[in-house]
Specification:
This protein is mainly alpha-helical. Helix content is 69%, strand content 0%. It has one domain.
């Protein structure tokens, strides 16, 4: 997830510009980036758990799907 994508989502969530700009040359507060990464990790793990459950009941490529979801790294 890029910085721009995080800022766009923050705005959609109701953040206003002064909450995203700390007034320094590094205007983007790194806390937002870390928070977005934690949310994405949680969502990936929940998706992977669904695939794990399917692989137990219905052995097929869903185990590979779960492993692929977990292995996905941030861009």
């Amino acid at each position: 997830m890029t910085k721009e994508e995080i800022i766009e989502m923050a705005r959609k969530a109701g953040f206003v510009d002064y909450e995203l700009d700390d007034g320094t040359t590094n205007a983007f507060d790194k806390r937002y980036e870390r928070f977005a990464k934690l949310v994405a990790e949680k969502e990936r793990e929940e998706c992977a758990q669904i695939a794990d459950e399917w692989s137990v009941a219905y052995p097929h490529p869903s185990k590979v799907i779960a492993e692929t979801i977990r292995a996905r790294i941030e861009k």
